[in-house]
Amino acid sequence: MDANFKKIIPFTNPYRSHVIWNVIFNIFYALFSTLSFIALIPMMDVLFGTSEKINKKPVLESIFDIIKFSKEYLYYNITLLTEKNGPEFALLLVIAIVSITFLFKNLFNYLASNHLMHLKNGVLKDLRNSMYHKIINLPVSYYSEKRKGDIMARMLGDVNEVQNSFFSILELIVKEPMTIVFTLVGMIAISFKLTLFVFIFIPLSGLLISKIGKSLRSKSEKIQYENGYLISIVEESLSGLKVVKSYNAESNFKQKFNDSVTRVLKLSNSIGKKNNLATPLSEFLGIITICVLLWFGGKMVLVDTLPDGKALLDGAKFLAYMGLAYNILTPAKSISKASYSVKNGLAAAQRVFEVLEVKNEITDSENAIKKLTFEDSITIKNINFRYEDENVLKDFSLEVKKGQTVALVGQSGSGKSTIANLLTRFYDVNEGTIAIDGIDIKEMNLHSLRDLMGLVTQDSILFNDTIKANISLGKLDATDEEIVAALKIANAYEFVKDLPLGIHTNIGDSGNKLSGGQKQRLSIARAVLKNPPIMILDEATSALDTESEKFVQVALENMMQNRTSIVIAHRLSTIQKADLIVVMQKGKIVEQGKHEELIAMNGTYNKLVTMQSFES
């Protein structure tokens, strides 16, 4: 059994009753599918006047004689009706039996399909939930190497493919095989000799079809990866549309997209050719078998005779037999198509489980401590950290006392933003410890750790929703009054109150209806409303123009009052009033002290001040 198939099974457990009922109804469907053709025999016997005459009412002597009893009881009633009321009433009886068998066949098919629908849709919902929970829970580091478009393709396209293709397996192992089994039993009951040809046909057909489908799974995997790349191009094009247009790079992106679409086309055509071949091939092989059966069966009806002069095979039985033989073709075609679908589904399932099985390195430790308050200090002790091979931070130590504003400054690549990533546990240190009030943050409950912190980044990350929804992200039950108060502290209420719907105004995708300064002030308001004891400002004003910076700077100063703040600085204005300025170079502290003390040292900090450039 395929490993990915085994991994899907736990997702079907909540819907086990639907699986059981689907199997039961499929078995009944297969049974009545066969009976519907066998019921044609007495109908044709009545039409041709060849009905077996039984005048004595049969008695069921043993449960094992149920088939013989059923047949004799039917012909007894046909005989009775024919003698009393004429053959037309007997014909009505057998037509009613044929109608009822076809009714039950289709009823059970509907019920089986209904339960399969509940199973497929339920598993789709659970798979999507699992995928989304996983991609939300995975650490930030995971996405630094992955294409967002590929993750989206797995989340949407591949999960859908699992739903659409994978559950063909229930038909592959229950409905169609049971239809073939019951049909073969009926055929053997009519003529064992003729049925031998069918036994030769089925394995031959299966062998040919499996050879064609052998390379299908690898091509399905390739096309799913290519679809992920395609979505990535679209996502990147839309995210960076201004850059694409300003550099006249449209033709470059169009070419990349066109190349990817062409690869998808070639793979789709290759898979489609093999999929399309399955049905006509199995049907052609089936018709060959039907022709052989017509020849040999026809001879048995028209030429070959028994010692008493009767035909070797009754004409009505032969016609019903041919109906049964054709009845095998539909499930045989369905099995060949379903086997291809399952290959697509397994390839998609593999990509889904590649994400679901990624080990999350940043999780709560056993018996993690829930820390609800910040009392004394943040201690960073002898930490080393590397993204790949080379250390970004080397033997770095720092203590931040409660109520202090500590600024980290230095040139780009000195490791400033890495400190913010480590404090919030977006990444974990390789060596050394970071502790809050003496408790290692790795031993703290992750949710409670992040509850103690507010983060304002250089990029104002806002969502396509109202101002209220964006600001209340850290406090979902906040009242309108609390939101307005946070906006006032963030120096943002002045522009928000002038908007058409105030705090209920939708700000568009990524807040694009607002200016950079307005977006940043909303980010600050979000942090203010959360009201955490520790504030981390990661170059919060570096992307702003001078006028916007003044508004944001006032907002930051309002926010940092009575809080412990770690400011990753880009501009001098942000940090002059800091209690401690830490100057970093290549992952190490080279100077630290207050603004005036560092100027007096006439070292690295003084040089940065002179240049007036605190690069990110």
From TrEMBL:
GO terms for cellular component: plasma membrane. Keywords: ATP-binding, Membrane, Nucleotide-binding, Transmembrane, Transmembrane helix. The chain crosses the membrane at residues 20-48, 89-108, 180-209. SUPFAM superfamilies: ABC transporter transmembrane region (SSF90123), P-loop containing nucleoside triphosphate hydrolases (SSF52540). The keyword Transmembrane applies. GO terms for molecular function: ABC-type oligopeptide transporter activity; ATP binding; ATP hydrolysis activity. It is a multi-pass membrane protein. Signal peptide: none annotated. Residues 20-344 form the ABC transmembrane type-1 domain. This is ATP-binding cassette, subfamily B, MsbA.
